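Re: beginner question about structure tokens

> Can someone show what the tokenized structure looks like for a real chain? I only ever see the sequence side.

Sure, here's an example I had lying around. Input first:
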Amino acid sequence: MVLDAAFFDTLSHLRLAMSHKSSMNMTGSRKSVQKGSSAEFSDFREYMPGDDIRRIDWNAYGRLDRLYVKEYLEEKEAVVSVLIDTSASMDYGAKKKSELACRLAAAMAYLGLNNMDRVIVYDARRMQSPFVARGGKQALPHLANWLEQCSFAEKVDMAEAVGKLPVKGSGVTILISDFLQEAFLNKDRETVEQLLHLLAYRKQKAVLLHVLAGEELSVGFTGTRNLIDMEEGTRLQVTMDAAGIGMYERALQDVISYLERECAAAGAFYGVCNTERDFRQLIFQDLRMLYDI
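And the corresponding structure tokens:
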């Protein structure tokens, strides 16, 4: 994977938004639920023996004739988990979904690393062997090498993979997938709701990046074709005319609208990522609501 230095320099001005304060124990740049010695004021409490007398608020003592100390929010490291769908369907497109998925993973990981978060990137088919990095953006070249080793083949159960995430403390969990699985496409669609509830229960800001090829978003062929399932090898003969294309596009929009509604209801972020879209515009315009800086 070739990394554009100028692109990442621009990206360094952004930070992933989090819906929960961090509760991790490592020093970082996120505001923690724990009290510490950072410059951001949190609250007052009564003085107790052993407290640092430099934190006594003498103005409050003058007014109330009681000793109070100032407490400050401590900055802690958060965890950014990135889960990549490495199923065979992701290797589709003139501009492959797999390539965009890896570029998105690198960008999201960089946002975490640049802000001293701990980053864990998972291959959904090999959950036991993630890429783990902390300590800043110098880990980015190692991540690029790791992403180049990812292969996109067979089937992946994204919901099952999410259940295997060893999440500890609050953070951000980013799912990068085409979501072309029966569990996300069938009529009851309980899987999406359960997945979002699980992440919310684990105090995760959920981010769903829906990667679709340009050919999937805008069908450009007509006539009778043999469609081959990339994961199961089954064949289906279809005739694509105006009516068939219209039916397909309505069904796709129905899926997109459903995912969008469920994410909005759960306080999660949802974004469609078109492989034909300029990557800079995708990151800095389409996904701008991901960032708090």
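Each token stands for a local structural state, so reading them left to right follows the chain. The mean pLDDT is 84.
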